[in-house]
Write a structure and sequence with these properties.
The structure is a homodimer of 432-residue chains. The first copy, chain A, is of the alpha+beta class and 432 residues long. The longest helix of chain A is centred in the N-terminal third of the chain and has 23 residues. The first copy, chain A, has two domains: 93 residues, Nucleic acid-binding proteins (OB fold (Dihydrolipoamide Acetyltransferase, E2P), Beta Barrel); 301 residues, BirA Bifunctional Protein, domain 2. Chain A has 14 helices and 17 strands. The relative contact order of chain A is 0.11. The mean pLDDT of chain A is 96. The two termini of chain A are 36 Å apart. At the A-B interface, strand 1, helix 4, helix 5, strand 6 and strand 7 of A face strand 1, helix 4, helix 5, strand 6 and strand 7 of B.
């Protein structure tokens, strides 16, 4: 028996086909007529069960259906009478493959804790389904852009040695007789070794933060893409990021119209983001915030509130660049025009979705990097390999990191980060 | 100033160009003539420095070059006089960007421990560079095949709750006040939840084994692709695997001719692997081993030796299918023709590269799965969410897992697994 996917029914209009999938929902229209929403992972279709056409025996099977039962169905796709490019399935016969008695996620509202404890089932809900399809698109749009621009995948290790930066937000793992290993928070330093071989590299894997935050923006395990490129300096670094993000926006709009609709995402607003990004220096950003009445000094970092004010009313993201060196990492290169500043840039998404990229040109001078490692109180021994990269054929280079979930939040318009990853891990959540 | 990549020199033949990269090596041909092998991550080119043509000052700079110094160079690509499609660069001028005094990895032989301690530099070596480029190709060939066949990326969690399967090979991580989390060994169980929403899913991320093995086949951290598909049964599962692996072989041969050459990989042998795979039942495999004089009983698992004997003389991989249920996992479906067997199949690569895929049809019946969980002594509570998948709309389904590094070993012909991952982690190795 040949089976068709819901996404392909148009090609089989008015022909008898077989499908396999699940009952999303059903509705009794009259004693003679029922509607069943059927889904199979590739799409959804409304099945029309007409007692007169099916016969009583087969219609009785429809009457017994439960939400989330799995089915084989036989029917004929018909063009929808009103809605263009939509199809209904005239149901001829069906058979239940797997029952679903008292499916726990009913139509009523459930609290987040209940839903998270049933994440293995909640995933089937329409919004979760749509969010994960868009996550897939975002992931590969990032990879496609990088692959076509000379970057090679270079998987950084997750288990990393003693990080002298302090271990308060690091997960610690006993590692044989080597003491402890720590779960990676970013593969960047390793990528800097990779570019010396491959020119341009990136990783894209899970990273971990043992932060005790309980906000809707925090996960303890999330996915991060870090990219690094030899001979790329600060301005070109931002240019690459802008092109990449605009490519992601275009790809999501092109591939996921149906899913954006399910999520009631404002596509027009998203479309407007695919335009030249804004650039502000940190100094300009502070001035802007002060002009809007925010009390902030010239060495403060930004919180969610500041990020929202900066991007307010803008459809495109903002780069905020050239930060005070004190609030940025030791490996960032100093601004040659002002050594008090670091050549770093954060990219802030519009609509309140916050920082989605952090990037910078990296310090490529051995002595300056050594001085910074020392003045931060880090151990030279721990960083000797990283210093070596400045000792043997150092080159100017830059890189940036994209938090996948933050970017998917922006694309989908979903406010809580827990809904854009299959099994979210939070401070109080490790199951299922 | 515009810069060209080495891979693009052909398009600039006989025109003056600028390049940036590193000195791979140099050779003095005479007092007037030097050859410098120059690399930039996109490829390698031999530069010809002729004192008469360059002038003494510029030639003197060539004489001072060190291995792995980074350079800007100006020159003119010329077609190689003998070798077709090869180019040399007639050197006009150069400038050192970053020195490299006494680069530690010289031409002499180094022991594996020295090389692993200098992995951040060893990566630049020609074989390591080639292996990582092929790793990139293999990774995306797998993703491409899956994406074009209806699979969605579905990132399984790395931090997983108490696994009652026993914790001897699990890395254990203190997790806030939730007790311990464990680093994932496979995302399969989570993918089984994913297919009920998306139909076909896969993950592709790091997995962890706290095994005390020190062989050339073991890493404590490696990359695994797990795929899972609703409505796919045992035979179709093998068919998908075969198509996928043959697609990977073709893609590597197509994209990485130069790298396979660097690695002296026998391409003809690899090419012959892109042909219909062999299938043996476990029973047949045992008979074959016995016929070759191996003492093995009908419930033994295979080791590297058995795998080599089974595939000896074959250019194509072997599926060994329908294993005694006792030596396979609890979640595998029983063979309906013989309930003592599990519908699992291992795929064994030729040329002694061992198992590269393990897969099976999964048990989809609630009661049978419950019985197996109980008889293994596992806790029902831990697996309740997994059992739920058989309670609400269960469907026949199958899946398989590919060890990325094993597959890259086969493609590259590299015998030691530590050379096919950027920063290998082993029992005694966590640095750099």
């Amino acid at each position: 028996m040949q089976f068709i996917n819901v996404k392909d029914v148009a090609a089989h209009c008015n022909k008898q086909i077989n499908l396999r999938g699940w009952v999303r929902n059903y509705r009794k229209a009259s004693s003679q007529l029922r509607f069943v929403i059927f889904r199979d992972g590739t799409g959804e279709i409304q099945m029309v069960a007409d007692k007169k056409r099916m016969g009583e025996d087969r219609f009785d099977k429809v009457k017994l259906l439960n939400i989330e039962a799995s089915l084989w169905v036989m029917g004929i796709p018909r063009a929808h009478q009103i809605r263009k490019n939509e199809y209904e399935l005239e149901l001829l016969d069906l058979q239940v493959i797997g029952e679903a008695v008292d499916y726990p996620i009913a139509k009523k509202e459930h609290g987040p804790d209940f839903l998270l404890s049933h994440r293995h089932l909640w995933l089937r809900s329409r919004r979760q389904y749509a969010a994960l399809k868009i996550r897939h698109t975002v992931y590969y749009a990032i990879c496609d852009y990088l692959n076509r621009n000379g970057f090679y995948r270079f998987d950084s290790p997750i288990l990393t040695p003693n990080a002298s930066e302090g271990t308060t937000t690091l997960f610690q793992v006993p590692y044989f007789d080597q003491g402890y290993a720590y779960l990676s928070q970013s593969g960047q330093l390793y990528l800097e070794a990779g570019i010396m071989s491959l020119g341009r590299v990136y990783d894209f894997g899970p990273v971990f933060r043992a932060e005790k935050s309980k906000t809707r923006k925090h996960l303890t395990e999330f996915w991060m893409m870090d990219a690094e490129a030899a001979f790329v300096e600060h301005d070109e670094n931002m240019q690459i990021q802008e092109e990449l993000i605009r490519y992601v926006i275009r790809t999501v709009i092109k591939n996921n119209g149906r899913e954006l609709e399910i999520l009631e995402r404002d596509i027009e607003t998203l479309q407007k983001s695919d335009a030249p990004f804004q650039r502000l220096t940190y100094h300009e950003a502070i001035n802007l915030l002060r002009a809007k009445g925010i009390a902030i000094s010239y060495t403060d970092d930004f919180g969610a509130n500041e990020e929202e004010i900066i991007t307010a009313g803008s459809a495109v993201p903002f780069f905020v660049e050239r930060w005070p060196k004190e609030i940025k990492s030791f490996y960032m290169k100093r601004d040659p025009l002002n050594p008090k500043l670091a050549l770093g840039a954060d990219l802030i998404a519009p609509e309140g979705f916050g920082e989605i990229i952090g990037g910078s040109q990296r310090e490529d001078d051995y002595d300056l990097l050594l001085e910074r490692i020392t003045s931060e109180g880090y151990s030279i021994e721990d960083y000797q390999w990283f210093l070596d990269l400045r000792k043997y054929g150092s080159v100017p280079h830059s890189g940036f990191g994209i938090g996948l979930e933050r970017l998917v939040q922006w694309m989908t318009g979903i406010r809580h980060i827990r809904e854009v990853i299959p099994f979210p891990r939070m401070i109080n959540r490790i199951y299922p």
